[in-house]
Amino acid sequence: MNGITAIGGWVGSRSAERRPKQLTGLCASGSRYLARIVPTKPFRAKNSGPIVSFTFDDVPDSALTNGARILDRHDVRGTFYVAPGTCGTEDEYWTVIDKRGVADLAHAGHEIGCHTYSHVKVQSLSSADLARETQRCFEALRDIGGNAVSKNFAYPFGNVSFPKKFQLDRQLTSCRSIYTGLNSGLIDLAMLRSVELYDRTSTEQSINATLDQAIATNAWVIFYTHDVTPNPSWIGCSPTHLEMAVKAAKARGIPCLAVDEALAAIGVRA
Ligand SMILES: [Zn+2]
Predict the structure, then answer these.
(1) pLDDT in tens, 57-85
(2) In the prediction, which pLDDT does 13 show?
(3) Diameter of the chain by CA atoms?
(4) Is domain 43-266 annotated with CATH 1.10.10.10?
(5) pLDDT < 50: residue spans in the chain
(6) Which helix (DSSP H) or strand (DSSP E) does residue 114 occupy?
(7) Is the CB of residue 169 less than 8 Å from the CB of residue 40?
(8) 45: helix, strand or coil
(9) 216 C-alpha to center of ligand 1: Å?
Protein backbone atom coordinates (compact mmCIF):
# COMPACT_ATOMS: atom_id res chain seq x y z
CA MET A 1 0.00 0.00 0.00
CA ASN A 2 2.97 2.29 0.66
CA GLY A 3 3.99 1.98 -2.96
CA ILE A 4 0.52 3.02 -4.14
CA THR A 5 0.48 6.05 -1.87
CA ALA A 6 3.95 7.06 -2.92
CA ILE A 7 3.18 6.82 -6.63
CA GLY A 8 -0.13 8.65 -6.24
CA GLY A 9 1.50 11.52 -4.36
CA TRP A 10 4.40 11.67 -6.76
CA VAL A 11 2.13 12.06 -9.78
CA GLY A 12 0.38 15.00 -8.25
CA SER A 13 3.47 16.76 -6.92
CA ARG A 14 4.48 20.18 -8.22
CA SER A 15 7.89 19.06 -9.33
CA ALA A 16 6.42 17.02 -12.19
CA GLU A 17 7.61 19.49 -14.82
CA ARG A 18 11.24 18.96 -13.73
CA ARG A 19 11.09 15.22 -14.35
CA PRO A 20 12.23 13.65 -17.61
CA LYS A 21 9.20 13.40 -19.90
CA GLN A 22 9.49 9.64 -20.29
CA LEU A 23 9.46 9.12 -16.53
CA THR A 24 6.44 11.39 -16.07
CA GLY A 25 4.60 9.50 -18.81
CA LEU A 26 5.37 6.18 -17.18
CA CYS A 27 4.14 7.49 -13.86
CA ALA A 28 0.91 8.78 -15.40
CA SER A 29 0.18 5.44 -17.02
CA GLY A 30 1.11 3.64 -13.79
CA SER A 31 -1.35 5.80 -11.89
CA ARG A 32 -4.07 4.99 -14.42
CA TYR A 33 -3.24 1.32 -14.05
CA LEU A 34 -3.57 1.55 -10.27
CA ALA A 35 -6.89 3.36 -10.67
CA ARG A 36 -8.03 0.51 -12.86
CA ILE A 37 -7.05 -2.39 -10.63
CA VAL A 38 -7.21 -1.08 -7.04
CA PRO A 39 -10.80 -0.76 -5.78
CA THR A 40 -11.40 2.44 -3.83
CA LYS A 41 -15.13 1.94 -3.40
CA PRO A 42 -15.59 -1.80 -3.05
CA PHE A 43 -19.13 -3.07 -2.71
CA ARG A 44 -20.64 -6.54 -2.56
CA ALA A 45 -23.49 -6.52 -5.09
CA LYS A 46 -26.69 -8.06 -3.71
CA ASN A 47 -28.79 -8.27 -6.87
CA SER A 48 -31.08 -11.26 -7.09
CA GLY A 49 -30.65 -11.62 -10.85
CA PRO A 50 -28.80 -10.14 -13.83
CA ILE A 51 -29.30 -6.49 -14.77
CA VAL A 52 -28.67 -4.51 -17.96
CA SER A 53 -28.16 -0.75 -18.25
CA PHE A 54 -28.00 1.31 -21.42
CA THR A 55 -25.80 4.39 -21.06
CA PHE A 56 -24.91 7.19 -23.46
CA ASP A 57 -21.83 9.39 -23.14
CA ASP A 58 -21.51 13.00 -24.40
CA VAL A 59 -25.09 12.69 -25.63
CA PRO A 60 -25.09 13.62 -29.31
CA ASP A 61 -28.52 14.79 -30.49
CA SER A 62 -29.15 11.38 -32.12
CA ALA A 63 -28.84 9.70 -28.70
CA LEU A 64 -31.97 11.68 -27.82
CA THR A 65 -33.91 11.61 -31.09
CA ASN A 66 -33.17 7.94 -31.83
CA GLY A 67 -31.64 6.40 -28.70
CA ALA A 68 -34.03 7.66 -26.04
CA ARG A 69 -37.03 7.11 -28.28
CA ILE A 70 -36.10 3.43 -28.73
CA LEU A 71 -35.78 3.05 -24.96
CA ASP A 72 -39.12 4.85 -24.50
CA ARG A 73 -40.82 2.43 -26.88
CA HIS A 74 -39.58 -0.47 -24.76
CA ASP A 75 -40.38 1.27 -21.48
CA VAL A 76 -36.71 1.38 -20.48
CA ARG A 77 -34.96 4.22 -18.62
CA GLY A 78 -31.47 5.03 -19.87
CA THR A 79 -28.60 6.93 -18.27
CA PHE A 80 -27.24 9.90 -20.20
CA TYR A 81 -23.86 11.28 -19.06
CA VAL A 82 -23.81 14.95 -20.03
CA ALA A 83 -21.02 17.55 -19.96
CA PRO A 84 -23.26 20.66 -19.85
CA GLY A 85 -20.50 23.02 -21.00
CA THR A 86 -20.59 21.26 -24.37
CA CYS A 87 -24.37 21.43 -24.87
CA GLY A 88 -25.27 22.64 -28.36
CA THR A 89 -21.70 22.42 -29.67
CA GLU A 90 -20.71 20.67 -32.88
CA ASP A 91 -17.68 18.60 -33.69
CA GLU A 92 -16.74 16.46 -36.65
CA TYR A 93 -18.98 13.58 -35.55
CA TRP A 94 -22.14 15.12 -34.11
CA THR A 95 -23.94 18.00 -32.43
CA VAL A 96 -24.32 17.63 -28.67
CA ILE A 97 -27.87 17.96 -27.35
CA ASP A 98 -28.74 21.43 -26.17
CA LYS A 99 -30.24 22.31 -22.81
CA ARG A 100 -33.75 21.72 -24.12
CA GLY A 101 -32.64 18.22 -25.08
CA VAL A 102 -31.42 17.58 -21.53
CA ALA A 103 -34.78 18.79 -20.26
CA ASP A 104 -36.55 16.45 -22.73
CA LEU A 105 -34.57 13.47 -21.42
CA ALA A 106 -35.39 14.40 -17.84
CA HIS A 107 -39.05 14.93 -18.70
CA ALA A 108 -39.20 11.48 -20.34
CA GLY A 109 -37.95 9.99 -17.06
CA HIS A 110 -34.37 9.17 -18.03
CA GLU A 111 -31.43 9.60 -15.67
CA ILE A 112 -28.97 12.43 -16.23
CA GLY A 113 -25.44 11.71 -15.03
CA CYS A 114 -22.32 13.87 -14.86
CA HIS A 115 -19.49 13.75 -17.42
CA THR A 116 -17.57 16.80 -16.04
CA TYR A 117 -18.67 20.32 -17.04
CA SER A 118 -16.39 20.76 -20.05
CA HIS A 119 -15.62 17.16 -21.04
CA VAL A 120 -12.03 17.10 -19.87
CA LYS A 121 -9.63 14.36 -18.91
CA VAL A 122 -9.90 14.02 -15.15
CA GLN A 123 -6.22 13.13 -14.84
CA SER A 124 -5.19 16.43 -16.44
CA LEU A 125 -6.87 18.57 -13.77
CA SER A 126 -5.61 19.79 -10.42
CA SER A 127 -7.68 18.67 -7.44
CA ALA A 128 -9.21 22.14 -7.14
CA ASP A 129 -10.08 22.28 -10.84
CA LEU A 130 -11.63 18.81 -10.69
CA ALA A 131 -13.77 19.86 -7.72
CA ARG A 132 -14.89 22.95 -9.68
CA GLU A 133 -15.64 20.84 -12.79
CA THR A 134 -17.94 18.46 -10.94
CA GLN A 135 -19.58 21.23 -8.92
CA ARG A 136 -20.30 23.29 -12.06
CA CYS A 137 -21.54 20.18 -13.83
CA PHE A 138 -24.07 19.30 -11.14
CA GLU A 139 -25.25 22.89 -10.71
CA ALA A 140 -25.79 23.33 -14.45
CA LEU A 141 -27.51 19.96 -14.87
CA ARG A 142 -29.80 20.43 -11.88
CA ASP A 143 -30.89 23.81 -13.21
CA ILE A 144 -32.15 21.96 -16.28
CA GLY A 145 -32.90 18.41 -15.20
CA GLY A 146 -33.89 18.80 -11.54
CA ASN A 147 -34.44 15.48 -9.80
CA ALA A 148 -33.48 13.47 -12.89
CA VAL A 149 -29.85 14.37 -12.15
CA SER A 150 -28.06 11.71 -10.16
CA LYS A 151 -24.66 11.53 -8.54
CA ASN A 152 -23.49 9.02 -11.09
CA PHE A 153 -20.50 9.90 -13.24
CA ALA A 154 -18.67 8.62 -16.31
CA TYR A 155 -14.97 9.42 -16.83
CA PRO A 156 -14.52 11.42 -20.06
CA PHE A 157 -12.26 9.41 -22.38
CA GLY A 158 -12.24 6.78 -19.63
CA ASN A 159 -9.30 8.69 -18.20
CA VAL A 160 -8.55 8.86 -14.49
CA SER A 161 -5.48 8.64 -12.26
CA PHE A 162 -5.47 6.94 -8.90
CA PRO A 163 -5.56 10.17 -6.79
CA LYS A 164 -8.38 11.67 -8.87
CA LYS A 165 -10.40 8.47 -8.65
CA PHE A 166 -9.98 8.61 -4.90
CA GLN A 167 -11.11 12.26 -4.88
CA LEU A 168 -14.21 11.61 -6.99
CA ASP A 169 -15.41 8.48 -5.23
CA ARG A 170 -16.02 10.50 -2.07
CA GLN A 171 -18.37 12.92 -3.86
CA LEU A 172 -20.22 10.53 -6.15
CA THR A 173 -22.36 7.43 -5.87
CA SER A 174 -20.71 5.71 -8.80
CA CYS A 175 -18.15 6.28 -11.55
CA ARG A 176 -18.37 4.31 -14.80
CA SER A 177 -15.24 3.42 -16.68
CA ILE A 178 -14.70 2.24 -20.24
CA TYR A 179 -12.80 -0.83 -19.08
CA THR A 180 -14.53 -3.88 -20.48
CA GLY A 181 -16.22 -6.25 -18.10
CA LEU A 182 -19.33 -7.22 -16.18
CA ASN A 183 -20.06 -6.15 -12.62
CA SER A 184 -20.63 -9.14 -10.40
CA GLY A 185 -19.96 -10.04 -6.76
CA LEU A 186 -17.39 -7.71 -5.21
CA ILE A 187 -17.39 -4.68 -7.49
CA ASP A 188 -15.73 -1.25 -7.45
CA LEU A 189 -18.35 1.53 -7.51
CA ALA A 190 -15.59 3.97 -8.45
CA MET A 191 -14.65 1.93 -11.54
CA LEU A 192 -17.76 0.23 -12.87
CA ARG A 193 -16.97 -1.99 -15.81
CA SER A 194 -18.82 -1.56 -19.10
CA VAL A 195 -19.34 -3.06 -22.54
CA GLU A 196 -19.16 -1.12 -25.81
CA LEU A 197 -22.38 -0.96 -27.78
CA TYR A 198 -20.80 0.06 -31.07
CA ASP A 199 -21.69 -1.29 -34.51
CA ARG A 200 -17.94 -1.47 -35.14
CA THR A 201 -17.06 -3.72 -32.20
CA SER A 202 -20.16 -5.69 -31.25
CA THR A 203 -22.46 -8.08 -33.05
CA GLU A 204 -25.77 -9.71 -32.21
CA GLN A 205 -23.77 -12.82 -31.37
CA SER A 206 -21.37 -11.02 -29.00
CA ILE A 207 -24.22 -9.18 -27.29
CA ASN A 208 -26.14 -12.42 -26.80
CA ALA A 209 -23.00 -14.02 -25.36
CA THR A 210 -22.56 -11.09 -22.95
CA LEU A 211 -26.17 -11.38 -21.80
CA ASP A 212 -25.88 -15.13 -21.35
CA GLN A 213 -22.72 -14.59 -19.31
CA ALA A 214 -24.59 -12.06 -17.18
CA ILE A 215 -27.26 -14.66 -16.45
CA ALA A 216 -24.62 -17.27 -15.60
CA THR A 217 -22.70 -14.95 -13.26
CA ASN A 218 -25.59 -12.87 -11.86
CA ALA A 219 -23.92 -9.77 -13.27
CA TRP A 220 -24.83 -6.19 -14.06
CA VAL A 221 -24.00 -5.32 -17.69
CA ILE A 222 -23.55 -1.62 -18.46
CA PHE A 223 -23.62 -1.01 -22.19
CA TYR A 224 -22.33 2.34 -23.38
CA THR A 225 -22.39 4.17 -26.67
CA HIS A 226 -22.46 7.72 -28.09
CA ASP A 227 -24.40 8.60 -31.25
CA VAL A 228 -27.33 6.46 -32.41
CA THR A 229 -27.75 6.95 -36.11
CA PRO A 230 -27.97 4.78 -39.25
CA ASN A 231 -24.37 5.66 -40.14
CA PRO A 232 -22.81 5.93 -36.69
CA SER A 233 -19.37 7.20 -35.79
CA TRP A 234 -16.69 4.73 -34.76
CA ILE A 235 -17.95 5.03 -31.17
CA GLY A 236 -21.66 4.90 -31.90
CA CYS A 237 -24.34 2.48 -32.93
CA SER A 238 -27.24 2.30 -35.34
CA PRO A 239 -30.84 2.36 -34.09
CA THR A 240 -31.27 -1.26 -35.20
CA HIS A 241 -28.21 -2.28 -33.15
CA LEU A 242 -29.51 -0.59 -30.00
CA GLU A 243 -33.00 -2.02 -30.46
CA MET A 244 -31.56 -5.50 -31.06
CA ALA A 245 -29.67 -5.29 -27.73
CA VAL A 246 -32.76 -4.06 -25.84
CA LYS A 247 -34.88 -6.86 -27.33
CA ALA A 248 -32.19 -9.45 -26.56
CA ALA A 249 -32.14 -8.42 -22.89
CA LYS A 250 -35.94 -8.37 -22.70
CA ALA A 251 -36.22 -11.76 -24.43
CA ARG A 252 -34.06 -13.20 -21.63
CA GLY A 253 -36.19 -11.54 -18.97
CA ILE A 254 -33.27 -9.37 -17.81
CA PRO A 255 -34.46 -6.08 -16.26
CA CYS A 256 -33.18 -3.03 -18.15
CA LEU A 257 -32.53 -0.39 -15.50
CA ALA A 258 -30.96 3.06 -15.46
CA VAL A 259 -27.77 3.20 -13.40
CA ASP A 260 -29.53 4.76 -10.39
CA GLU A 261 -32.16 1.98 -10.42
CA ALA A 262 -29.50 -0.69 -10.89
CA LEU A 263 -27.53 0.66 -7.92
CA ALA A 264 -30.66 0.36 -5.79
CA ALA A 265 -31.15 -3.19 -7.09
CA ILE A 266 -27.64 -4.20 -6.00
CA GLY A 267 -28.18 -2.64 -2.58
CA VAL A 268 -26.47 0.75 -2.84
CA ARG A 269 -28.21 3.57 -1.01
CA ALA A 270 -28.31 6.84 -2.98
ZN1 LIG B 1 -17.23 11.54 -23.29
Answers:
(1) 999 999 999 999 999 999 999 999 999 99
(2) 34
(3) 58
(4) no
(5) 1-23
(6) strand 111-114
(7) yes
(8) coil
(9) 31
